## 1
Amino acid sequence: MNANPEFLAANAHVDEAAIKPLPNSRKVYVQGSRADIQVPMREISQSDTSASYGAEPNPPIYVYDCSGPYSDPAVSIDIREGLAGVRTPWIEGRGDTEVLSGLSSEFGNERLHNAELQSMRFPGLVRQPRKAIAGKNVTQMHYARQGIVTPEMEYVAIRENMRRQEYLESLKNSGPTGQKMFELMGRQHRGHSYGAALPETMTAEFVREEIARGRAIIPANINHPEIEPMIIGRNFLVKINANIGNSALGSSIQEEVEKMTWAIRWGGDTVMDLSTGKNIHETREWIIRNSPVPIGTVPIYQALEKVNGKAEDLTWEMFRDTLIEQAEQGVDYFTIHAGIRLAHVPLTANRMTGIVSRGGSIMAKWCLAHHQESFLYTHFEDICEIMKAYDVSFSLGDGLRPGSIYDANDDAQLAELKTLGELTQVAWKHDCQVMIEGPGHVPMQMIKENMDLQLDWCDEAPFYTLGPLTTDIAPGYDHITSAIGAAQIGWYGTAMLCYVTPKEHLGLPDKNDVKDGIMAYKVAAHAADLAKGHPGAQIRDNALSKARFEFRWEDQFNLGLDPDKAREFHDETLPKDSAKVAHFCSMCGPHFCSMKITQDVRDYAQAQGLSEQAALTKGMEVKAIEFVKQGSEIYSKA
Amino acid sequence: MNANPEFLAANAHVDEAAIKPLPNSRKVYVQGSRADIQVPMREISQSDTSASYGAEPNPPIYVYDCSGPYSDPAVSIDIREGLAGVRTPWIEGRGDTEVLSGLSSEFGNERLHNAELQSMRFPGLVRQPRKAIAGKNVTQMHYARQGIVTPEMEYVAIRENMRRQEYLESLKNSGPTGQKMFELMGRQHRGHSYGAALPETMTAEFVREEIARGRAIIPANINHPEIEPMIIGRNFLVKINANIGNSALGSSIQEEVEKMTWAIRWGGDTVMDLSTGKNIHETREWIIRNSPVPIGTVPIYQALEKVNGKAEDLTWEMFRDTLIEQAEQGVDYFTIHAGIRLAHVPLTANRMTGIVSRGGSIMAKWCLAHHQESFLYTHFEDICEIMKAYDVSFSLGDGLRPGSIYDANDDAQLAELKTLGELTQVAWKHDCQVMIEGPGHVPMQMIKENMDLQLDWCDEAPFYTLGPLTTDIAPGYDHITSAIGAAQIGWYGTAMLCYVTPKEHLGLPDKNDVKDGIMAYKVAAHAADLAKGHPGAQIRDNALSKARFEFRWEDQFNLGLDPDKAREFHDETLPKDSAKVAHFCSMCGPHFCSMKITQDVRDYAQAQGLSEQAALTKGMEVKAIEFVKQGSEIYSKA
């Protein structure tokens, strides 16, 4: 059990495990149209192919990197100071915001002036909050609709491209085997995109169009200048979110910051702080000031703390104060459960597992207690006014998501989804950025219906799903029950997958669980990118497979999602360093190795005149392999 | 690293971890039409619902049980003696086999009379091998085609039904809430079966028809009377296989037996012994004599050992001797890579990862060295003669399966698959049971093509796939990359999923890895059963969800695939026993709990007249939720 130890800000320190660069990896930055657009990527270098496989160079590959400055040895990190505000000049440059003289929220001021909190409060430079000048709208969607390409848009375009063209071009010039390498690394299977329109090369203008259309969002609060912008939309790489947050029962501020830095190290594209215990205002400040990725929250959780857990005591006024409090801290997206209307609540009465979303059940309880329409729904345009003054994106919550296979795709869930579609139109009227949350527990054959209805009813606003879990019978393994569903819904068009850890339904995830959840979801997201046919997605698979085939063990580890784990597993059976350059593995042993045989095949094919054989089979259709048919006819006992 | 310690048969002992019944579980047997048909199931008992949720009884549920007599406290296990031969009277009763006076294989006799092996040899009662009387065919397919319903067929029919009808009927009589329980537990979403024909209730006659048609197999060597019969076919529950086996580099006989008992404890439906080190004949004997599940092997592995790893020295004669040696030990299915023809080999020359199947590369090397057609192909009918004399099932190997995303569904793979389809017809001519092995590494959008071609070309012979792995970039997590693909291909129609452990590509799996692999695959198989709409598949999900909703923690753990893990995870955050009866969990804490709120909703719904609401929404179509539309129109700022 995680105790809740006395936390002293003065003692806070960065997790050493979070700042070590990954093996053979180097942080590189691609510069955009202005000097201060420096887009980070991770370059993974590789060794040359050994002589027995052709002695060719293997140029480094480039992968998407969420880890921020933590993995850059040139940057010195002190979490008591927070990260630099890379976006500050962009935000200032637009001239549509003003720095306020103090916090606008009552609660924020209360916490700021509470002397008892001094020892745990984030000690870094206190930023004065920034807000849109009266009458201005500072959302990325607003700019996009005005035809403005922001630095954020250009940044994500460069980021999504991952230097693919440059990498492939460089292969051609990598020596005598350059053309072969170009073809090997660049080849990719045709995807099935289910209607996604994936451009061959991402441009800032395409990003702008997608945002203007509402089909993508860049969560980027003007009070979170520390973020490295990222984009969420069906025509971009599939993203994943990692949830962290303490509860009344455990974990400290230091632990939560560590979970965040740990999560982004392994590939969390955004992080949601779902804290429900005490001091969540202070915890959040620490997380945001140190986070290079967008931070999401569910403000109703904090609002509930303020009324001591009595949902019926919630009011619009104090919820509004909470939104402003968090918006001025820099939260990038808010889960708002405005789709649960009073009339939906009774639809859940005959469910197997009722309402499993915390936010959903809070609002359901409020509606019932007052027998009134939800204040989130009735005040939705008021909320839009706040969102657009700070550019907080909506994550319209699925408070009625199914908590069991039994409840999947039921009337309650779909009624809420329909409402979210209506609210999307309202938010878009205000140029607010919107994504839509989705289930939950759904058996495989019912997943696609979720995606299809969401695309239809929510007009292609990005879908952001929790799993879905494809069976209920495996507590302890729900990262897997849900990765199965996540890969599928990602393929069908979901833009961001909210991870599920092995502790789901059982307890609070610790750092190991966070990593396990992220790994399962990186796998799901990448499998979805491959299936959609995202340009360049296969490069990393190709590079790793080549390393595997050529027994470049270290490269195989380093090109993988988790070099540490791969190395550890390998070393359990073959611990000696020599084994890592050995041309065999522990499955077959040195005696016989299937990989080695392929070289014989190649030699043979060449000797037999592969070109003839290739000519014979060229154009061979899957449905009619002529020489096999012929084989069938000549089949006879020898 | 697992050493290869001196193994002494006299010291062999059953793994204590394998014989402990799972918590709140009891072995029950359902009797068939004769006294000696006793079909095992696991009964999981549950506690009553607490007063706050309605104080109703929750009758036990029944789940499929692969663990054999190990989990029956009434049976005393001594692995030095082996298991009882439950099928012996059935086999004898058919009167078409004879007990031989000795082993037919040269190698078998050599090992039997090698005094040096005495200390490690299985010490139990040495069974004289059994063989079909000359001219007889003893395959289950042969009986099925004669119209004979064997005890094995009846057994699997009972087993597949899992007492579903009896369970549901019993619910109705379980007190005042019986009808409600019947509806809650019995409800299941309509599946999408992709052409599978899943009968509402399994009958022995249906089993017979499926086997006669070649659409299902019961792997059941007459020399393996210890097995509890199981069936593999697209119209039955999706099964999983666990691979075990030592290599030249590690693990002992005791360890391999423990991996087998461990694998079946967690749900392995069959086990393949892929040993490649020394003493594989003796290891296999220990495994078979102690295994209640079918055992599969790849005989070419052992044949290769006999020629000291030199593939070109393999001959039909010594391969034939190996088949007979293993058939007389009781191996239930053989992977035979007869689909790799000489002409296919050059098709792999331009692959990223060449030939990754060990068996495939052995045969490719042989073909190249001799520039001859594979002897497995030319002697295929000779092999059939052996198979039908012992009822060993074919598992036609996919020696050219892709070892990388790059190589997925390529000409080499498909040429082999086509050949496997032709060989299926040949085997069926001999009434031999056949299943077809499948890939490998395949991105999601290309999985269905594999299934469709297999169904077409192999005329619905059961498909048995390794994964497929949906990306190459996650060494250390390939149980997950592949569970994603396995769930999908299982849904599309694959009958058995060969597990992949986290150690895939990296090292030999230990017991932890075996369990992790099995869990990922039990999840995939069950997700597939739900998606196909297998009758009754949802009962366990429903029961577990009800327990979860009612905070019956112990029941939630026990109904899951892995009660130990679920309990351990829960206790990490809330270790106190009291927490396991607490009506909250560590995610929300005692302060506020979403589950609790649903009770309020139910009370409210009742007070508001749920019946009206229900009437309002009854027949509500997904595409047109009227009251939501209405909500849209009345939307206005409050």
## 2
Amino acid sequence: MVSEAKTTTPHHVVIIGGGFGGLYAAQALRKAPVKVTLIDKRNFHLFQPLLYQVATGGLSAGDISSPLRAILSHQKNTQVLMGKVIGLDPNQKTVQLPDKEISYDSLIVATGVSHHYFGNDQWAKDAPGLKTIEDALDIRRRIYSAFEAAEKETDPEKRRAWLTFVLVGGGPTGVELAGAMAELAYDTLKNDFRDIDTSEARILLLEGMDRILPPYPPELSVKAQNSLERLGVTVQTKTLVTNIDNDIVTMRRGEQVEEINAKTVLWAAGMKASAMGKALAQATGVELDRAGRVIVQPDMSLAGHPDIFVIGDLANFSHQTGKPLPGVAPVAMQQGKYVSTLIQKRLKEETVADFHYQDYGNLAVIGRNAAVVDLGFVKFSGFPAWLAWIFIHIFFLIEFDNKLLVMIQWAWHYLTFKRGVRLITNLEEEPAGNFEERRDYRTPVQV
Amino acid sequence: MVSEAKTTTPHHVVIIGGGFGGLYAAQALRKAPVKVTLIDKRNFHLFQPLLYQVATGGLSAGDISSPLRAILSHQKNTQVLMGKVIGLDPNQKTVQLPDKEISYDSLIVATGVSHHYFGNDQWAKDAPGLKTIEDALDIRRRIYSAFEAAEKETDPEKRRAWLTFVLVGGGPTGVELAGAMAELAYDTLKNDFRDIDTSEARILLLEGMDRILPPYPPELSVKAQNSLERLGVTVQTKTLVTNIDNDIVTMRRGEQVEEINAKTVLWAAGMKASAMGKALAQATGVELDRAGRVIVQPDMSLAGHPDIFVIGDLANFSHQTGKPLPGVAPVAMQQGKYVSTLIQKRLKEETVADFHYQDYGNLAVIGRNAAVVDLGFVKFSGFPAWLAWIFIHIFFLIEFDNKLLVMIQWAWHYLTFKRGVRLITNLEEEPAGNFEERRDYRTPVQV
């Protein structure tokens, strides 16, 4: 099937995307007789499951990022290229970057998804989502700026709007953000202001379905909701957001329509495939699902293009359960390893069985001492679940120094309730420069 | 002199600026019978002496920043306000913020300095300086992007320009940046690229005077230069930069004029006072020096305005040695404490002696195992100086969690030569958003 194995030029595997799928595929090829090129727009791997901690000031961006070059530094068959893929040609077997064209023998596409506003892209500016480091820093700036503005605001109604935080979407990201924000408002910041009482902050978590964490077993959804309510979060299920404009969130629950005045709205609902999905469809004729994800074969390849694989969140793999596998890190990691095995077997002219996802369970953290864990054979919640959650998340951080720093910061937060990384940076009005160094500096009034 | 002490309203001390001067003044007033308002444009105190570590990827912004509210959380007589002062009226004794006016009884101005291009402000875009967190992240982006661009560049001359780094100014910041960049290029990154050899990078440190670290004793300047050269830095003294344009740095050494092609130029020369200096001059008639710093009285107050004090880098205090005290953290900290003592004494109608700076010495780090320390009675360099430098810098970090994290990261870098915080964020072309999620996505070529 693949002939390059017999020539002197090694088989060239090109991987697009350095997330869980792409990085694990690259690492699994470290001893294979192939040449690997990993292309990513960014120069780092991001540990997305902890991004909500950056957004709420618990961790620094650097704590959950690892330089791709450092991870793969000693993997001599692998080159990292920072760049964006702007085209591909499945017949010539090439991908195009702005300044060069790269030939591949096998192509692995793992470019993931971004948020989706269900046709309401104008909501993006008022209700940012959480996918990138820049998103997290933007959300951190919004959250902490809202408390600062409330402290200065004298009009009670406006102050209330500054202290109202709406989270749209009750999946793991929404739940984790809500829990972290409740801790922030009701514990961390409680002594830090003089003119406002941060315990008056309202944190609303809105979910369209009849329960939060819909992919989890119902009893865990109930436990999660109870835990959030104990922390002070208002959970509203069966609630659809119908508009977000000018700090007003309009929502509908059955027949009831309500408007709420909130200066901070965060989006944790809906996602759509990255543009690479559409490009693949145009180039290969492969079918996309409604979210733009690529419908893959049982071996993660594309129909009619056995040398192109799509893995991770961008892939719609429905062969196992009849519905797409969830967009979570373990799926992407297993698919990355699977495809790298498949490529190596092919080079030896061996075959492999179809991809099979080994589901070790779901987990979501709710706040201090509270999480929910579903391992299939056992479900548990509360403090043991929280410890399990922390252990697993630290374990899967790529580099040892990240593990160490995150562990210490967690222990420190646990003991002190502090969140140290509360920097408001990149202010929109004044992106950089020194204090007061402004052109509009008003000449002092002289009598 | 001050009558408020006898009334029921407490004496109100307004401090502008939460750097070393302002923060230490506020903290020294914690038990005083006064009300304190600390105003800063930012919500955090920045430990500027370690900013070069953020700029070179050794530390995260959060590691060297402490939220002002958290530091002063339990200091009940003190309120923190995030905002910019846009005017002041010394007769009415008020300062203006965009949304409110604040009356003071005593005013402490500690707004520091920013960089200065000696009338060549157009150089700023090509040669950024290092004063703020945003500056540091911008410089980090430039440094790591240069190596990425070099890896992709095939033209040898352009590649050489990407691998040429010019640092203008041989003071402590320039020296510390040069040392860190040499470690980066010649150790940290040496296995990370495939098409370039990072040991070919050139790091040039340019200084106009006849030696680097001009305020230090000459023998330490020599040691510092030797250490830098051992690390691979090219040090050029008596060299003036006459132009920076389009990646070309023009410099003059005596009669000799040279041009060098460098994609990364960093500015560590010259500084000027923040705009607050000029505003004070207009409002009070106080004299400024050539750099815009405020010439203060022997008690740090302004001539004719005993209730207004200027401290830290913004102050020109020449009463002790005949020339201005250097713009370093210890001066600002001692001045902050001095003014807070003076205000408290005044309230008791006592007097205090003039300000006197207790100089404990100078120190600058050059790189791994190398620093120079001048304690007046003893000068030393090399590994003991490096340990002293690290110890002192960690000791003066405000919060315990910063101390702990910085210590661990330093130990980790020392053992592994790693720099973990190498994120290239806020790319100019594409500030946020997902990989490949671009409008100019080229439709694949179909045959």
## 3
Amino acid sequence: MLLAPRVWGSVRLGARGLAGRAPAEGRKVDIAGIYPPVTTPFTATAEVDYGKLEQNLRKLGTVPFRGFVVQGSNGEFPFLTSIERLEVVSRIRQAMPKDKLLLAGSGCESTQATVEMTLSMAQVGADAALVVTPCYYRGRMTSAALIHHYTKVADLSPIPIVLYNVPANTGLDLPVDAVVTLSQHPNIVGIKESGGDVTRMGLIIHKTKKQDFQVLAGSAGFLLASYAIGAVGGICALANVLGAQVCQLERLCLTGQWEDAQVLQHRLIEPNTAVTRRFGIPGLKKTMDWFGYYGGPCRAPLRDLSPDEEEKLRLDFTSNGWL
Amino acid sequence: MLLAPRVWGSVRLGARGLAGRAPAEGRKVDIAGIYPPVTTPFTATAEVDYGKLEQNLRKLGTVPFRGFVVQGSNGEFPFLTSIERLEVVSRIRQAMPKDKLLLAGSGCESTQATVEMTLSMAQVGADAALVVTPCYYRGRMTSAALIHHYTKVADLSPIPIVLYNVPANTGLDLPVDAVVTLSQHPNIVGIKESGGDVTRMGLIIHKTKKQDFQVLAGSAGFLLASYAIGAVGGICALANVLGAQVCQLERLCLTGQWEDAQVLQHRLIEPNTAVTRRFGIPGLKKTMDWFGYYGGPCRAPLRDLSPDEEEKLRLDFTSNGWL
Amino acid sequence: MLLAPRVWGSVRLGARGLAGRAPAEGRKVDIAGIYPPVTTPFTATAEVDYGKLEQNLRKLGTVPFRGFVVQGSNGEFPFLTSIERLEVVSRIRQAMPKDKLLLAGSGCESTQATVEMTLSMAQVGADAALVVTPCYYRGRMTSAALIHHYTKVADLSPIPIVLYNVPANTGLDLPVDAVVTLSQHPNIVGIKESGGDVTRMGLIIHKTKKQDFQVLAGSAGFLLASYAIGAVGGICALANVLGAQVCQLERLCLTGQWEDAQVLQHRLIEPNTAVTRRFGIPGLKKTMDWFGYYGGPCRAPLRDLSPDEEEKLRLDFTSNGWL
Amino acid sequence: MLLAPRVWGSVRLGARGLAGRAPAEGRKVDIAGIYPPVTTPFTATAEVDYGKLEQNLRKLGTVPFRGFVVQGSNGEFPFLTSIERLEVVSRIRQAMPKDKLLLAGSGCESTQATVEMTLSMAQVGADAALVVTPCYYRGRMTSAALIHHYTKVADLSPIPIVLYNVPANTGLDLPVDAVVTLSQHPNIVGIKESGGDVTRMGLIIHKTKKQDFQVLAGSAGFLLASYAIGAVGGICALANVLGAQVCQLERLCLTGQWEDAQVLQHRLIEPNTAVTRRFGIPGLKKTMDWFGYYGGPCRAPLRDLSPDEEEKLRLDFTSNGWL
């Protein structure tokens, strides 16, 4: 699945080297904050549209994000070739503000391919790698297997690793005991938790509190609850369209304005569900079109929303006062 | 399943009449606060031990609870006869402080039996009825069916109804749209949410905010997060053993001391999981023995913990500083 | 839930005593054959309609069934009082042909209630008891707990016990190792398997082949495959309306006419799914009305089919040539 | 994920052209029979061991299989690069007997990548392509999306397409209505059904009987039942070690010797479960070592069996008389 390094040797490397990004002794990199998981824009003939990508980045760059996640689930990474995955990251590295973090999804099914992709992501400018759990053989993905996988990747990676647990896509929950063990690795800095189980999140935070390990919420739907329980940020699909509002929710939580935070959180739940579980990436991209970004089509087999679905999607935004 | 009224005619009615508990015009009863779901003590020969029940109540009465839940899932209600269910509630009504609320589980599989049990619970002194979703025919338990069920029960009940959603036991999630519809009923005052999905809880709170409808967390594991998102209390198995601590968590949340709340919440997650999902009622009862209450055996087919399980249970308390 | 014996002392006992039904030394009772799980007819005001029950029995009595299952899931047993459960069995015992077997559902959540109900069912004329897995506390229903439960019931029952595994209703699969252990009990004669997993059924048959233990398919949808793998019959909701056809499928399988059996089996799958998983008991009862039986309403919270559902239900029968 | 054609231009094309394999007018290719899903042997350093592959093929070539499946789930295809996937197929094409069929797994997440991989598989000598359902975005993999995906692939493929439904790996069931629609495509010849739901299989066979569409069982555990219901063969992991026995079961079924078939089927269930659901590919490869094939290690994150697992695996074979 992975190419030999020379094949993608022509990909432009990120302007920033890796110096300073390797795990310093003592303190790990701080990933606290809000990130949109950037979508991959396609032309009508399903080519990656790098122009639109940069255009989106310019608009997203005005929002006070901590950084950008590239090739998360919302980036349609399983539909991209290795070359495309790296090229997209490289372009975003160029286009994004220099003071933001770039978290690049580098998970593959095999440990070897994940190691190679992580190295490549580092070469094209990623600040950290977001590594989804391998899942095709989920029946054998025990704690021991997953600990071994992530340890190998973290050992060999020049950039910090963020674990990525997203059971809706993988049909798999990275066991808490595996997370606790992995939190002790000097090159594993945190986890993106997309399952929405705050009891689990609280337990992870509690059991890793001596480890300099950070938890990011994987969705805006439970962002306030995640902050309340000790998470330090979120990677939120909704931030692609309501980025300012998600960042505002962050500020309200961080400054202890919980009542205002609650009001805002409530208004974000339905829009968030609409662009994630309910209508998926086609819903997110359609909404981006409404909010002045380029959404465009998905690659097949993902399909455009039906008119009926589009109407329901719109209602989830209008009924909460966002459109 | 239900007896004719004359059969349990001999059951002692609660000292308090129903006056003042029927839904007043305008404002529904306020159920905010912390409740332990009281266990049912059995003798070695599996008879209800009313003496131990009263003894437990006396000790629980010293904790600043809002009230008591009787015949929730932790009360082993599916193992009790109708007569026992009512007798237990009657006894607790006598034994408990007069200023506390008594929420009695009255859910049965059929609507008719649920109506009758609710009426009976009111007669023996319940202040409100906690009605679990019927679930044996879960494939047909649509929103429409559940709305019809609860509406009928609420129409005919002299005491307020609290919906009870506990998917771990029922294999069923009461749909949010059904909850929203039911929240408009003048005799339905809230919901106990045991699933732990705070996004769902937030949505329910958001969509019922004009309805004078209250949400209680069904477990201590996500109590802080529930308060953060707008819940008003919790019915927590753990409160049977760490009642003061759960009430302290409530106070910290209500007074905005979120940092202290977080520390406390973290220490409660493992003990909570231990007495609920991990070791169930046998785990809870064993822990009660440790904390000066009478736990005792469960009715069959529930079985005592093995020595190995008991050791793990103890570790979940000792490692968090509670034993 | 259970009444003291005197309460149902007035229920008419079945004409047949229990003599000869207790497990003979050496050989267990033979339960091979086809059974309809009889529905419980209700009047418009939700009373049990015993007249219609007897009328249905007369018509069902002309089909070459091995016997009748009463108070299986299709009998709406969770909606009946204990008195009704026994009265229904008693009436069917009177109305049914003397040479047929009566299998009565006697499962309750507690072991004690199940023992008592089984004794009562024997008293009112049941030939064997069909005992569903307790399930409300499914998280603790380990092999050990279920083995203990069924052993106790079988030890104390004057009539043979048939295990009943129906994961669609219980959310629980009786573990194969528990079935194998229980098959050695002299008073446990077989299992009704409703899950449709023929690999599991084959394994049970293989591992109990020295035990004089019989497996019945729990649905007509996989009846042929069950015979092929070694099952000896079926308890099939569809037999309430297409009883002759289900019995014909039995004969084709038993006489090795597999090609004709296959053609017939294929035509039964959609109607079978329609009256089980797809439209449940309301679908079965509606179909009974079409086929000259009395179906009538279900007890709440089960609801009548919508006109649209009814149309789809009809299509599942007409498109296969049954209406 | 896919390479440009020139990259793998050096891969040796299969000796056989595609002539005669394109869908003839009228009659589709007949895929009836038994196939082992060939494993991919690796060296101690996780390189593909082509020598061992050919050695295994020679031994497998003596069994009366209809052909070989390459890059099914047991081939660890998600762990292979595109180049490796094609090279493995090419090598097997050379090594295998000329009169056997080669079914090559060509499924990828995107429609475009699947089309390209299918074309490549045809070029290196595959007779038909086995296309697994895309699954990462399973929440959006509606019937419409899957019909569109497979139609596109079948339209553009020079070789026939076999649908591949394996919910244990994909968390997704290809809807029956989609299968029925797709069965009408002239270049879609059948389906591999690995879920083990024979009711579903029977329904598919029934509803496609006018379509010249064949169903293969995806496991030896329910092979007899599948033949009984109308399937025409099987792709069985167990055939990698007990190939002669699986072929004998086929013959017994095809010649109507159902009693002998049943005895044999029963003895194969536990070994089959052991090398599939219970111990996965590590279990299958370990067993291959015992039976005179080269099993060897899996690629990470799959791990070797523990000594305890290995003992249980062995017992599943010895207790049924195979070792």
